[in-house]
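Q: My labmate handed me this sequence with no annotations at all. I'd like to see what the chain might look like in three dimensions before we decide whether it's worth expressing. Could you predict it?
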Amino acid sequence: MNRRRLIALALAGLGSALLGGCSTFRREAPRPGRTTLDSPLVILPAQRLGTYLVVEGKWDRGGPWRFLVDTGANTTLVTPEFAKRYGVKDDLAAPAAPVTVFSADGIPVSLQPVTIRELELGGARFERIAARIYDCAALSAHLGVKIDGVLGFPLFRETRLTLDYPRNRVVLTPNRSEALVPGLSVPFSNANKTPLISIRLADRTFIALIDSGSDGGLSLNPVGLRPNFTFGPREGSTVGTLAGDRPQQIGRLAETLIIADYAFPTPIVELSDELSSIGGSILKNFSVTFDQDRDQVTFYRDSPAPILTPRRRSAGVSFAKNPAYWRVAGVVPDSPAATAQVESRDLVTRINGEPVARWDFSRYEQLINTADAFTFTFLNGTSETEKRLPVFDLVP
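A: Here is what I predict for the chain of 396 residues:
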């Protein structure tokens, strides 16, 4: 399973590749019309799906509604169903132009603007939210949970936002709170309220986006950095971008990554020609607090010890998911899957004898990390063929 931005169309819909890194969205995004917290401390239980945090809200007869929190996105996305129920029909503001992106199949997808009347998450209420309409079906199918939207960073402009990964929760406090936040703080490096911070690779400093909408670790643009590797980089899984699918370039560095004085010796990185970013595989080690009023982000963890990056395991294939089948999006070269002649666009109906619908995101990821092999059932016309594929170390 490829790491970075889920898979296929779901990848293109979430973070910097679409909403943080696309020049269309470079300007400062609008804040919600009004944000109200019922108390000085609003704690939202979050469901952890891999390294993604999903929060839930229900405030009328609709829902419950589930949203993925994406600090790498500078707009909020909602499904057509949600937009129909809560969209403002008499909005007098000048309408924003639609934005066209491309699905994993190269099909143009237009993201229409909408103003959402309200959104409630526990004791937090957001009103008149500028959003885009996005069909989250592919994202829902991949995660195994119905997702109704993606909450972009500007939604939390009037609050202090904490993504508490170790405790599986999201915490909101007033943005002008005087309460002290434990940990090590780093300033935002720009005036547009985007979580871009300065980090270090050995003795070189560079800028990276804090992107909770990515499940990868460090996505590194190597220009000017001349990184040294102990392994790779090698071609890995297939990842999706606005320009379509492309093979991942992944390896293990020979140097130490420093984020707010926390050390990651010899981390695994994915090379990118986009802005460098820090994804959920790194963020999961911390409680991360974003203070947009003070233009800073604070990292906290119980131990100051160096954080080791485990090996990256793979079944050699990445998928675009549907409830009835998974379509092979890419095959890792020189992997057991390539040797077994698995090809892009092959269809898988069962894994270890069970229908793919039973393999949600977390269960499949756990199997990759623990199993020695998978048995995939491939659909060929009306017949099915089983292939047993070993799990291997993509990056030791």
